[in-house]
Specification:
single chain, 4-stranded mixed β-sheet
């Protein structure tokens, strides 16, 4: 009798364990997979341009004109403002996508003395972009994340007619579109409130460095033409220590002197007018000496060189802007 009861209890226990195991395995097999973000949410800081439509027969940049009842303020070639090169921050759902290229701004206002009509602007612009097939990346309010908000607020540009950009306002939702045309990529930001409507359209283009290295050949050409070469050598601020870019220019001076063994140079330092005359005089001669001794260390006979410093005594331009001051901070190679 005891043996029979024990066997029965063991069977019940084994059955219960298998049932629980089966239930657990079933739950694991039927658990719903994670669903990727949808709607206005993006999973990357980039845009997959392969999925962005290439639009045809939509005219030329900036592609958008004013509807009846509105006009583009200060319009010139269809734009209120134009920047040959700028950057723009684009909210793509949960990330910021930074673009660079030429930027056009269209600021819309009421036509023929009429007040601006926000509903007309929104209906016209959004309907147009949707109908031509531009891809809507986002439409809604400013993001809640403060870092993202701060980045979007960098979209503020000052042009010839005024300053405009994305506004962080409760009654000013915005939208972001993307499209391609003629082999080029475009990003569009649209925003309006009760007083104005703006379209910011950018033709994407990677920045191209157009500043060329001041080569030994160019230095020789300038010296042959004018008797000197003007160099803007990078030193540490208020010091005579060469920065990496400055060292590269010194390498080019070495190449110049090596290729022209009869050439002798006076290396002359110049500063802007920031600081005292005494300080600038010392800084300019110290920098000239730095270049001279760097060349001597590379193997140039120091008898072919001399150093001089003129402080701010011989400016190329008036020291009234930062750009002009930068021009005046220089080293000149003068043929002896």
């Amino acid at each position: 009798m005891k043996k029979t009861v024990l066997v029965a209890l063991l069977a019940i226990t084994l059955f219960s364990c298998k049932k629980e195991e089966k239930i657990e395995n079933t739950e694991q097999k039927t658990q719903a997979p994670s669903i990727p973000a949808t709607g206005n949410e993006a999973s990357s800081t980039e845009i997959n341009w392969d999925e962005v439509p290439d639009l045809q027969n939509i005219g030329n940049f900036p592609f958008i004109t004013a509807p009846a009842g509105l006009r583009i303020a200060h319009a010139k070639e269809g734009l209120s403002e134009f920047f040959e090169y700028e950057t723009m921050q684009n909210f793509i759902g949960n990330n910021i996508y930074t673009t660079e290229g030429k930027l056009g701004i269209l600021a819309f206002e009421g036509a023929e003395g009429k007040d601006f009509n926000q509903k007309l602007f929104d209906k016209s612009v959004y309907d147009y972009l949707d109908k031509i097939g531009a891809k809507k990346i986002y439409q809604g309010d400013f993001p809640e994340d403060e870092n993202q908000r701060a980045k979007l607020e960098k979209n503020m540009w000052t042009g010839k007619k005024g300053t405009s950009g994305l506004l962080r306002e409760s009654d000013a939702p915005f939208a972001v579109y993307a499209f391609k045309n003629g082999g080029k990529k475009y990003m569009v930001n649209v925003q309006s409130n009760s007083a104005q409507g703006n379209v910011f359209i950018m033709e994407l283009k990677d920045f191209e460095q157009t500043i060329k290295k001041y080569s030994a050949e160019q230095m020789k050409s300038d010296i042959d033409k004018t008797g000197k070469a003007i160099l803007h050598i990078n030193f540490a601020t208020d010091k005579a220590t060469l920065q990496p870019d400055g060292e590269k220019i010194t390498d080019e001076i070495f190449a110049l002197l090596t290729a022209n063994p009869n050439l002798k140079l006076s290396i002359e330092g110049h500063t802007d007018n920031t600081g005292t005359a005494v300080k600038n005089q010392k800084l300019s001669i110290d920098r000239a000496n730095t270049v001279m001794y760097a060349l001597a260390a590379k193997g140039i006979d120091i008898k072919r060189l001399k150093a001089a410093g003129f402080g701010s005594e011989k400016p190329l331009k008036e020291n009234n802007t930062e750009e002009n001051k930068a021009e005046n901070r220089r080293v000149e190679l003068v043929k002896i």
